[in-house]
Amino acid sequence: MSVRFAGYASVFDRVDRGGDVVRAGAFAASLQAARAVPLLWQHRPGASIGMIETLAEDARGLRVVARVTHPAAAKLVASGALTGLSFGYRVTAARGVNPRELVALDLAEVSLVAAPMQPLARVIQVVKE
User: Fold this and answer.
1) Kind of pairing, strands 123-128 and 3-11?
2) Contact 92, 104 (CB under 8 A)
3) Cα 35 to the chain's mean position, in Å?
4) Each residue's pLDDT tens digit in the chain (129 positions)?
5) How many Cβ atoms from other residues are within 10 Å of residue 120's Cβ?
6) Is the link from the previous residue into 45 a cis peptide, with omega within 30 of 0?
7) Beta-strand (E) ranges in 1-129?
8) CA angle (41 as vertex; 46, 110 as ends), nearest 5
9) Which of 88, 91, 84 shows the shortest CA–CA distance to 119?
10) pTM for the complete prediction?
């Protein structure tokens, strides 16, 4: 079983649980580099559960379309039991505090997670295949 989904790994201009806010354009340089970005389970290195088909910034945030090929993870996503998305990154430019504004990020991975740091970072559409 595999499942294809679309959602947002990051939502712009909303403070997350850690006190950070990602600004539009923060992923631009990283996306332009066109490096492969893995789809992971709960940010665990080496725990790849599928593949990312597209990553792009739009007006709302970092939109991701991906395919989950790991059977257990695919079942959770397909049933709606797992909807959280998150991303791993390195800050390359930030400003301010409370909230800290993240203006340039080096994207390392996207993860399906139980409890995203940004509550609005979610799977929004699922296609069972």
Assistant:
1) antiparallel
2) yes
3) 15
4) 799 999 999 999 999 999 999 999 999 999 999 899 999 999 999 999 999 999 999 999 999 999 999 999 999 999 999 999 999 999 999 999 989 999 999 999 999 999 999 999 999 999 977
5) 14
6) no
7) 3-11, 20-22, 38-41, 48-57, 61-68, 84-95, 100-113, 123-128
8) 90
9) 84
10) 0.94
